[in-house]
Amino acid sequence: MENDLNFEVFLFFSPKKIIFSVNQKTDSKLIFKNELIFENNSTNLNFEKLNFFLSENVFKVEKILGNFIEKINVIIETRDFLDLQISMKNNDHNEYVDSNVISYLVKSAKYQCEKTIQNNRIIHILIDTYLIDNVHYTELPLNQKCKNFSLDIRFICLPDELIKNIEKILKRFQISVNRILSASYIDRFVDDKEINFFKMTRKIIDGHNKNEVKLVNKTRKNKGFFEKFFALFN
Question: Which of 45, 125, 169, 208 could form a disulfide with 213 if both were Cys (CB 3.0 to 4.6 A apart)?
Fold first, then answer.
Protein backbone atom coordinates (compact mmCIF):
# COMPACT_ATOMS: atom_id res chain seq x y z
CA MET A 1 0.00 0.00 0.00
CA GLU A 2 1.37 3.42 -0.96
CA ASN A 3 1.51 5.99 1.80
CA ASP A 4 -0.12 9.29 0.79
CA LEU A 5 3.11 11.05 1.74
CA ASN A 6 5.04 9.10 -0.90
CA PHE A 7 3.09 10.12 -3.98
CA GLU A 8 1.67 13.27 -5.53
CA VAL A 9 -0.95 13.78 -8.18
CA PHE A 10 -0.97 16.17 -11.13
CA LEU A 11 -3.85 17.09 -13.40
CA PHE A 12 -3.12 18.88 -16.68
CA PHE A 13 -6.25 20.50 -18.11
CA SER A 14 -6.44 22.28 -21.47
CA PRO A 15 -8.88 22.64 -24.39
CA LYS A 16 -6.79 20.06 -26.28
CA LYS A 17 -6.11 17.38 -23.69
CA ILE A 18 -6.32 16.18 -20.11
CA ILE A 19 -3.49 14.33 -18.38
CA PHE A 20 -3.71 12.55 -15.04
CA SER A 21 -0.29 11.71 -13.62
CA VAL A 22 0.78 10.20 -10.31
CA ASN A 23 4.46 10.32 -9.36
CA GLN A 24 6.53 9.21 -6.41
CA LYS A 25 7.60 12.21 -4.36
CA THR A 26 11.12 11.02 -3.69
CA ASP A 27 12.36 10.62 -7.27
CA SER A 28 9.37 11.68 -9.45
CA LYS A 29 9.15 8.11 -10.76
CA LEU A 30 5.93 7.58 -12.68
CA ILE A 31 3.31 5.46 -10.90
CA PHE A 32 0.37 6.09 -13.20
CA LYS A 33 -0.41 8.22 -16.24
CA ASN A 34 -3.41 8.50 -18.53
CA GLU A 35 -4.13 11.03 -21.24
CA LEU A 36 -7.23 12.09 -23.14
CA ILE A 37 -6.76 14.06 -26.37
CA PHE A 38 -9.64 15.98 -27.91
CA GLU A 39 -10.07 15.82 -31.67
CA ASN A 40 -11.54 19.28 -32.11
CA ASN A 41 -10.47 22.88 -32.48
CA SER A 42 -12.17 24.22 -29.39
CA THR A 43 -10.37 26.87 -27.36
CA ASN A 44 -12.58 26.40 -24.30
CA LEU A 45 -12.06 24.13 -21.33
CA ASN A 46 -14.53 21.24 -21.30
CA PHE A 47 -15.64 20.61 -17.73
CA GLU A 48 -17.99 17.77 -18.68
CA LYS A 49 -15.12 15.84 -20.22
CA LEU A 50 -12.97 16.60 -17.19
CA ASN A 51 -15.62 15.12 -14.91
CA PHE A 52 -15.92 12.01 -17.11
CA PHE A 53 -12.14 11.61 -17.35
CA LEU A 54 -11.73 11.80 -13.57
CA SER A 55 -14.54 9.31 -13.01
CA GLU A 56 -12.67 6.88 -15.27
CA ASN A 57 -9.32 7.34 -13.53
CA VAL A 58 -9.55 8.43 -9.89
CA PHE A 59 -10.85 5.17 -8.42
CA LYS A 60 -8.54 3.17 -10.70
CA VAL A 61 -5.54 5.07 -9.34
CA GLU A 62 -6.71 4.82 -5.74
CA LYS A 63 -6.92 1.04 -6.17
CA ILE A 64 -3.34 0.97 -7.50
CA LEU A 65 -2.13 3.16 -4.63
CA GLY A 66 -4.16 1.38 -2.00
CA ASN A 67 -4.98 4.83 -0.70
CA PHE A 68 -7.28 7.78 -1.27
CA ILE A 69 -6.21 10.83 -3.26
CA GLU A 70 -6.81 13.84 -1.06
CA LYS A 71 -5.02 16.67 -2.87
CA ILE A 72 -4.05 17.39 -6.45
CA ASN A 73 -1.89 19.93 -8.30
CA VAL A 74 -3.83 21.36 -11.24
CA ILE A 75 -1.94 22.76 -14.24
CA ILE A 76 -4.15 24.76 -16.57
CA GLU A 77 -3.60 25.85 -20.14
CA THR A 78 -6.19 28.38 -21.24
CA ARG A 79 -6.53 31.76 -22.90
CA ASP A 80 -8.53 32.86 -19.85
CA PHE A 81 -5.38 33.69 -17.91
CA LEU A 82 -4.91 37.39 -17.22
CA ASP A 83 -1.45 38.93 -16.86
CA LEU A 84 -1.19 42.21 -15.01
CA GLN A 85 2.08 44.07 -14.45
CA ILE A 86 2.51 46.72 -11.77
CA SER A 87 5.62 48.84 -11.14
CA MET A 88 6.25 49.91 -7.57
CA LYS A 89 8.80 52.59 -6.66
CA ASN A 90 10.56 53.65 -3.51
CA ASN A 91 12.22 57.01 -4.18
CA ASP A 92 14.72 58.79 -1.91
CA HIS A 93 15.33 55.55 -0.11
CA ASN A 94 18.97 56.17 0.89
CA GLU A 95 19.13 52.90 2.75
CA TYR A 96 19.96 49.25 2.13
CA VAL A 97 17.56 47.11 0.12
CA ASP A 98 16.15 44.50 2.45
CA SER A 99 13.20 42.14 2.81
CA ASN A 100 11.06 44.74 4.57
CA VAL A 101 11.22 47.14 1.62
CA ILE A 102 10.37 44.43 -0.90
CA SER A 103 7.62 43.04 1.28
CA TYR A 104 6.00 46.47 1.52
CA LEU A 105 6.17 47.08 -2.25
CA VAL A 106 4.85 43.63 -3.19
CA LYS A 107 2.08 43.82 -0.61
CA SER A 108 1.04 47.23 -1.95
CA ALA A 109 1.10 45.94 -5.53
CA LYS A 110 -0.98 42.92 -4.54
CA TYR A 111 -3.55 45.21 -2.96
CA GLN A 112 -3.76 47.29 -6.16
CA CYS A 113 -4.00 44.15 -8.27
CA GLU A 114 -6.86 42.74 -6.23
CA LYS A 115 -8.81 45.97 -6.68
CA THR A 116 -8.34 45.70 -10.45
CA ILE A 117 -8.98 42.00 -11.06
CA GLN A 118 -12.43 41.60 -9.58
CA ASN A 119 -13.76 38.04 -9.94
CA ASN A 120 -10.23 36.77 -10.66
CA ARG A 121 -7.79 34.96 -8.41
CA ILE A 122 -4.03 35.48 -8.27
CA ILE A 123 -2.22 32.26 -9.27
CA HIS A 124 1.39 33.43 -9.54
CA ILE A 125 3.23 36.56 -8.36
CA LEU A 126 6.49 37.14 -10.22
CA ILE A 127 9.11 39.85 -9.80
CA ASP A 128 10.30 40.45 -13.36
CA THR A 129 12.84 43.19 -12.68
CA TYR A 130 14.60 44.92 -9.82
CA LEU A 131 15.68 48.47 -10.68
CA ILE A 132 18.24 49.95 -8.31
CA ASP A 133 19.53 53.43 -9.11
CA ASN A 134 18.68 52.87 -12.81
CA VAL A 135 20.48 49.51 -12.95
CA HIS A 136 18.38 46.46 -13.85
CA TYR A 137 18.76 43.19 -11.94
CA THR A 138 17.01 39.89 -12.60
CA GLU A 139 17.68 38.71 -9.05
CA LEU A 140 17.54 40.60 -5.81
CA PRO A 141 20.90 42.06 -4.71
CA LEU A 142 20.47 42.11 -0.95
CA ASN A 143 22.11 44.63 1.34
CA GLN A 144 22.88 47.07 -1.44
CA LYS A 145 22.51 50.71 -0.47
CA CYS A 146 20.63 52.83 -2.97
CA LYS A 147 18.68 56.03 -3.41
CA ASN A 148 15.93 54.83 -5.74
CA PHE A 149 14.48 51.35 -5.87
CA SER A 150 11.62 49.85 -7.88
CA LEU A 151 10.09 46.50 -8.79
CA ASP A 152 8.26 45.31 -11.89
CA ILE A 153 5.78 42.79 -10.52
CA ARG A 154 3.63 40.51 -12.69
CA PHE A 155 0.45 38.87 -11.49
CA ILE A 156 -0.87 35.82 -13.34
CA CYS A 157 -4.58 35.54 -12.61
CA LEU A 158 -7.44 33.20 -13.44
CA PRO A 159 -11.22 33.74 -13.32
CA ASP A 160 -12.60 32.72 -9.97
CA GLU A 161 -15.57 31.00 -11.63
CA LEU A 162 -13.24 28.74 -13.60
CA ILE A 163 -11.39 27.73 -10.45
CA LYS A 164 -14.64 27.07 -8.60
CA ASN A 165 -15.82 24.81 -11.44
CA ILE A 166 -12.66 22.72 -11.11
CA GLU A 167 -12.93 22.63 -7.32
CA LYS A 168 -16.58 21.57 -7.58
CA ILE A 169 -15.74 18.66 -9.89
CA LEU A 170 -12.86 17.48 -7.71
CA LYS A 171 -15.05 17.69 -4.62
CA ARG A 172 -17.25 14.96 -6.13
CA PHE A 173 -14.26 12.66 -5.71
CA GLN A 174 -13.41 14.02 -2.21
CA ILE A 175 -10.29 15.70 -3.65
CA SER A 176 -9.14 19.23 -2.87
CA VAL A 177 -6.81 21.47 -4.88
CA ASN A 178 -3.28 21.74 -3.53
CA ARG A 179 -1.99 24.25 -6.10
CA ILE A 180 -3.21 25.72 -9.38
CA LEU A 181 -0.47 26.61 -11.85
CA SER A 182 -0.20 28.12 -15.30
CA ALA A 183 1.02 25.67 -17.95
CA SER A 184 2.56 28.45 -20.05
CA TYR A 185 4.49 29.66 -17.01
CA ILE A 186 5.89 26.18 -16.37
CA ASP A 187 6.76 25.85 -20.07
CA ARG A 188 9.32 28.62 -19.63
CA PHE A 189 11.46 26.26 -17.57
CA VAL A 190 10.91 23.01 -19.47
CA ASP A 191 13.34 21.65 -22.08
CA ASP A 192 11.56 18.38 -22.86
CA LYS A 193 7.84 18.44 -22.01
CA GLU A 194 7.31 14.72 -22.39
CA ILE A 195 9.99 13.90 -19.84
CA ASN A 196 10.27 16.90 -17.55
CA PHE A 197 6.94 18.73 -17.39
CA PHE A 198 5.54 17.33 -14.14
CA LYS A 199 8.98 17.12 -12.59
CA MET A 200 9.43 20.82 -13.35
CA THR A 201 5.97 21.49 -11.93
CA ARG A 202 7.16 20.00 -8.67
CA LYS A 203 10.30 22.20 -8.79
CA ILE A 204 8.18 25.30 -9.41
CA ILE A 205 6.03 24.43 -6.40
CA ASP A 206 9.21 24.00 -4.35
CA GLY A 207 10.50 27.47 -5.35
CA HIS A 208 12.61 26.80 -8.44
CA ASN A 209 12.05 30.37 -9.63
CA LYS A 210 13.63 32.60 -6.99
CA ASN A 211 11.65 35.56 -8.29
CA GLU A 212 8.28 33.98 -7.67
CA VAL A 213 6.56 35.18 -4.52
CA LYS A 214 5.14 32.14 -2.78
CA LEU A 215 1.82 32.27 -1.00
CA VAL A 216 2.48 29.92 1.88
CA ASN A 217 0.96 28.82 5.12
CA LYS A 218 2.25 30.83 8.08
CA THR A 219 2.68 27.68 10.15
CA ARG A 220 5.30 26.13 7.86
CA LYS A 221 8.78 25.83 9.31
CA ASN A 222 12.23 26.19 7.74
CA LYS A 223 11.00 28.76 5.24
CA GLY A 224 13.15 30.12 2.46
CA PHE A 225 13.94 33.81 2.08
CA PHE A 226 10.92 34.83 0.01
CA GLU A 227 8.58 32.63 2.01
CA LYS A 228 9.57 34.32 5.26
CA PHE A 229 8.36 37.77 4.41
CA PHE A 230 5.53 36.90 2.03
CA ALA A 231 3.84 34.34 4.25
CA LEU A 232 1.67 37.14 5.61
CA PHE A 233 -0.35 36.99 2.41
CA ASN A 234 -2.13 33.90 3.69
Answer: 125
